[in-house]
Amino acid sequence: AIIAALEADDSPLAAASLKAMRRNSPLSMASTLAMLRPGPATLVDAIRQEFRWTWRAMEHGDFIEGVRAQILDKDRNPRWKHERPEDVSAAEIAAMLAPLGADEWEETP
């Protein structure tokens, strides 16, 4: 819906936003949107959620591909796992944000 709204808007801001979104990882954008809605109840919940996503992004996300495209090969042409944000399933997002079991971040006094 966000992309459709930007495509329907002919303003320079919408065009710049759409350009930026099209170069980003669809899995990362979909996960970010999920983390913002409805949002963690506390700061500790937010940190725990970010930790889970970061933990999994290194192995299952597009982080390594982004590093390859920007820093290693410098081709600026990442090949994301998903072509478009709408190709990312709810199950994939849930898996990225699911509890980590024994590896879960715990607040320490």
Can you describe what's shown?
- The protein has helices at 2-8, 12-23, 26-36, 43-59, 63-72, 90-97.
- Helices cover 60% and strands 0% of the residues.
- The protein has 109 residues and is mostly helical.
- The chain has six helices and no strands.
List the helices and strands and how they pair.
Layout: H1 2-8, H2 12-23, H3 26-36, H4 43-59, H5 63-72, H6 90-97
Helix pairs in contact: 3-6
What's the total count of β strands? 0
The separation of the N and C termini measures: 42 Å
Overall SS class: mainly alpha
Main pleated sheet: none
Shape: globular
Using the CA coordinates, give the radius of gyration: 16 Å
Strand content: under 5%
Report the total helices: 6
Topology as H/E string? HHHHHH
Low confidence ranges: none
Q: Assign a percent range to the helix content.
A: 55-70%
| Overall average pLDDT | 92
Question: In brief, what are we looking at here?
Answer:
The protein is an all-alpha fold. Helix content is 60%, strand content 0%.
Top keywords for this entry?
single chain, 6 helices, 60% helix, 109 residues
